[in-house]
Amino acid sequence: MSLAYRCLFTLLTVVPWLAVALWPVPAMAVPPGHDPLLFSEQGYRIDRYRSPTPETVPGATTVDTQHVAGLLDATPPALVVDVINLTFLHGRFLQTEPHFTLPGALWLPNTGLGHLSDDWYYSRHDWVGYLVAEVAAASGGDPTLPIVVICRSDCWLSWNAVKRLAEAGFERLYWYRDGIDSWEAAGHPLEIATPRTPPFASAAAEPH
Fold first, then answer.
1. What gap in Å lies between CA 204 and CA 104, rounded to an integer?
2. Contact, 164 vs 43, CB < 8 A?
3. HEC profile for 34-99?
4. pLDDT by residue (tens digit) across 167-183?
5. Is the pLDDT of residue 150 over 80?
6. CA proximity to 148, closest of 53, 83, 54
7. Helix (H, G, I), strand (E, B) or coil at 150
8. What CA dihedral angle connects 5, 11, 14 and 20, to 10 degrees?
9. What is the pLDDT of residues 80-131, one digit of tens each?
10. Are 114 and 45 in contact (CB under 8 A)?
11. pLDDT of residue 1
12. What value does the mean pLDDT of the chain take?
């Protein structure tokens, strides 16, 4: 076999395999709940909470600012549930600055975290029970009362909380995907909120 023939044979057989091995493979979009680094086995978001969110969440209707304003003006008005986080340490919430939210919102911090049942710290308390019980009490036990769940824009905490409330049997859930940021940007008023004290808080943390 001549040298020229051997070179041609090598190009035809080896180079295509190298091209396949070295050619970059495009990244595939991972649907919600399918990436173990971002989602728990139950489908809750567990990391990178401030990142782009999907347009929908199972069990709820996604609403914009105008729709939320209409729900608050309705009779009876919708219940707004704010799930923005707040440090909880030694049986009490540690708040160092005012928290502004939608008027009349029920602030239930940390209830939108995705790892409440298996995290070494948060699993010591029943945060899911806190969420469900407070929403049930505020809604008068009516599972059909409109409930709007919020945090900020690009925030998975409210997505998780909606999923939990849907699984708990609440029927009229609305997800304000754009959150407090968009409400304020539209010129609507905000109020200073105080977090509801969970039943597992220490007695010294109870408000007087």
1. 26
2. no
3. CCCCCECCCCCECCCCCCCCCCCCCCCEEECHHHHHHHHHCCCCCEEEECCCCCEECCEECCCCCE
4. 999 999 999 999 999 99
5. yes
6. 83
7. strand
8. -160
9. 999 999 999 999 999 999 999 999 999 999 999 998 887 777 888 999 999 9
10. yes
11. 52
12. 85
What span, in angstroms and rounded, lies between the C-alpha atoms of 29 and 147? 31
CA dist 58 and 166 (Å) reads 8
The residues, ordered by sequence, that sit 6+ positions from 76 with a Cβ below 8 Å of its Cβ are 145
- The overall pTM is greater than 0.85: no
Tokens 């049930």 map to which residue?
136
Task: Pick the closest to residue 111 from 82, 83, 151 (CA basis).
Answer: 83
User: To which residue do tokens 């069990």 refer?
Assistant: 59
Q: Which residues pair with 88 in a beta bridge?
A: 93
Q: Which two tokens stand for residue 208?
A: 């007087």
The larger pLDDT score, comparing residue 105 to residue 205, is at 105
Q: Could you count the other beta carbons within 10 Å of the beta carbon of residue 136?
A: 17
Tell me the residue length of the chain.
208
